[in-house]
Design a protein that fits this description.
The protein contains eleven helices and 19 strands. It is globular and about 80 Å long. 45% of the residues are buried. It is α+β, with helices and mostly antiparallel strands. The longest helix is centred in the N-terminal third of the chain and has 12 residues.
């Protein structure tokens, strides 16, 4: 395997290809877990747009699951973590003392990734993994709103003894996709212009190696066509070729319909992008299971009320800093948070004034302007609407 840099791990790692990452801009999104109400509007928007046909009944490219018990497919994260533990017992640890703002913002991960575990075990595969059973695919909202009692030492507000939270999931369009690495037909590719990961269905033969290798289980097998399918990041909207876009890049369907305004889309590798600010500058948005090694490009603002040890396992050691900044936000962070769900246009850059957050499209034209603090208007006593 080649050695490639993974900034989320703070080190180089093994990967079958030297440069699968996007040469141009990288599609990315940030989901604010604290705002999600699990209305599943995003899920149904994706389903009604892309996976409503025969053979796609159990395909949910977007889903919202209740953690810690829920998951689609069931136990997807626990099973992958168990495979890593089996390959390297006790090895999933971070050296937080080796932080480097540019190359190792969370410290250095000393354990094995899914690629390195396969290499060490000499499996002959690109990555360790498993194929879920039909039963595990059968219930997309299993254990929805199911809480647990977690004994947190010295539990303080906002941490609660009884807790659960919603995890919103689409394909991460990883910089180092395990699905791409594992496909013997090279039917999966990463677009150079935007980093979106797609399946060339003319090459796919349904071997399901991609389903097996993806640690997030976001590649799915369609039985009646015997071809793999996955989230395509609504690329016609991102390109501006969808008739609704009027030639201008727009956000994905799941992001555009979000009731709670928890989602923001943009380019993580563009310094002008609000996504870049949240991920690289403010470091309030974190990758999901960075220890898998795929360098995912969907990021999360962690929930404030969940025990930290659980969140550190899920989002890495950057959790404490992220939550501290979210609980006491800077003026710029407050402004960027107001841009979530403010427009269906794709925001390439932004400006924060004393009172407003302004978003600009890819050509630099202003497309949205929102107040940072919503005005509160109180009726004077003489005009109270009381009879």
């Amino acid at each position: 395997m080649a050695k490639v840099p993974n900034w989320q791990l703070g080190r180089e790692m093994s990967y079958p290809y030297e440069k699968p990452a996007a040469a141009g801009k990288q599609f990315s999104a940030v989901f604010n877990i604290n705002r999600c109400i699990a209305c599943q509007t995003c899920t149904m928007a994706c389903k009604s747009t892309w996976t409503f046909s025969q053979g796609q009944e159990f395909m949910w490219w977007n889903n919202v699951e209740s953690k810690p018990y829920g998951g689609y497919p069931q136990h997807w994260d626990m099973k992958t973590l168990a495979l890593l533990e089996e390959a390297d017992p006790g090895g999933q640890k971070w050296d937080a003392g080796k932080k480097d703002p540019a190359n190792a913002p969370y410290g250095v991960y000393n354990g094995l990734t899914v690629f390195e575990a396969a290499e060490q075990l000499k499996t002959g595969q690109a990555a360790i993994g498993y194929i879920p059973t039909d039963q595990e695919w059968s219930v997309p909202n299993i254990h929805e709103d199911t809480s647990t009692v977690f004994s947190a030492q010295g539990g303080q507000i906002p941490e609660h003894q009884t807790w659960f939270f919603y995890l919103q999931r689409i394909c991460n369009h990883c910089s180092y996709p395990a699905c791409l690495a594992s496909c013997p037909r090279k039917a999966i590719y990463k677009r150079e212009e935007d980093g979106i990961v797609l399946v060339d269905q003319s090459r796919c033969r349904g071997y399901r190696k991609c389903v097996e290798a993806c640690p997030y289980k976001k590649v799915m097998y369609r039985g009646n066509t015997r071809i793999a399918e996955k989230c395509i990041a609504c690329y016609p909207r991102v390109e501006g070729t969808d008739p609704l876009t009027e030639g201008e890049p727009m956000v994905t369907r799941c992001i555009s319909v979000c009731v709670g305004k928890i989602r923001l889309q943009g380019w993580v590798n563009d310094e002008k992008s609000p996504i870049n600010f949240l991920v690289h500058k403010e470091k309030v948005a974190l990758p999901l299971y960075p220890q898998f090694g795929t360098q995912p490009n969907v990021y999360y603002i962690p929930p404030r009320w969940v025990p930290r040890q659980y969140l550190r396992q899920m989002f890495g050691p950057g959790v404490d800093e992220a939550l501290a900044k979210y609980a006491n936000p800077s003026h710029e962070l407050l402004g960027v948070l107001q841009l979530f769900g403010a427009t269906q246009k794709l925001l390439a850059s932004y400006e924060i004034t004393e009172d407003e957050a302004i978003g600009f499209n890819t050509s630099g034209r202003e497309v949205v302007r929102v107040p940072i603090v919503e005005p509160v208007i109180v009726r004077p006593p003489e005009r109270l609407n009381i009879t």
